Fold this protein.
Amino acid sequence: MSVQKLLEAHLRNSSSPVVSRSIVELVGKTPLVRINRITAELPKDVEIYAKLEGYNPGGSVKDRAALRMIEDAEDQGRLTRDKVILDSTSGNTGIAYSWIGAVKGYKVELVVPGNVSEERKKILNAFGAKVVFSSPLEGSDGAIRLAWKIYVEHPDRYCKLDQYNNPSNPQAHYDGTGAEIIAQTEGRVTHFVASIGTGGTIMGTGRRLKEFSKEIKVVAVEPDNAFHGLEGLKHMASSIVPGIYHEDELDEKIPAPTEESYLMAKRLAREEGLLVGQSSGAAMWAALELGKRLQKGVVAVIFPDNGDKYLSTRLWEV
Amino acid sequence: MAVKVRIPTPLRKLTNGADEVKADGANIKDVLNDLEKNFPGLKERICEPDGALRRFVNLYLNDEDIRFKDNLATTLKENDELSIIPAIAGGVF
Ligand SMILES: Cc1ncc(COP(=O)(O)O)c(C=O)c1O
């Protein structure tokens, strides 16, 4: 037999449904980078470090949650070859499902509010996902409701990963993000700051950090108003509260104003060389507010994605 | 000019839950002022203190972005439809 034939026979007989594990292995282990100039006004013993989740293969923190939700569903037998992955998303989770679905050979169907940035729509299309748009007037809650409607009409066709209620979402951060921050700060971390969408990042990471030391403070950042311009974030008081979100596990919630968050995203680009999204601007704005109140501390803050997906918006026109 | 204004979910607590309201005005700026009279607090959510449209807010006149027309000075016809849409999708991703 020729080498080619041997190789083909091997691939045919392989029991693993995974096309290639190489790219999925690149999810997580993101860099933690010191913020230097923006923090100049803080006491010298207050250090702020940003975890750059834009370094994930799909460009956002949601790669972690999506990969874990998909692989846990495979292990549980809920996700099989014949199923289509279905969920509602305002973009980043959808991008993560789409590329991971492409790698593993699953069809992906997403319900996305019609007003997400053009870049997101194009990226989803590039990865071959089927996208259903929900009313832009209804925001992400409209997408949640429409995805459930699609699911209950054909429950046998879909595997609904339900990022808002799926424990695999925070678990990805418990095992990954939280453990990485402890290692990267050599256990020195005193405060953790993250913005909330599903709450997966803050819940899973927070739990891991609290287990490591009860002294570590977990601080959530949310839009200061129901009507806001922070893509990916949820104003909890006016939204469908995700099942995985438990406010009692937080030490504090800081409301971030849209305009100040945009301005901070611009400063991150011009003063730190970091082109990041709106929710990173919000998280950094809150981390700085927090830092001003401290005498001493090591603050780890999540930057959920890069800014290149927002170039069509007015994010940097301050 | 009487026009229809479509209200996004997060602003409906200012319109007593209504997803569509009527307003009057020769142009969009007038309509926003008329809205503010009936639904106090609505205008400051849509406009900056100096009156300019907030950067994360898009107004669509019959499905066309008013920034590609005459912005707030765009004139209106009877029964035009104006939609207020945040330039992002609040919620997750
Ligand atoms: C840009 C952006 N920032 C922040 C978040 C919040 O992350 P989480 O869902 O883990 O709360 C998301 C997604 O949900 C997002 O897309």
Notes: The two ends of chain B are 39 Å apart (CA to CA).
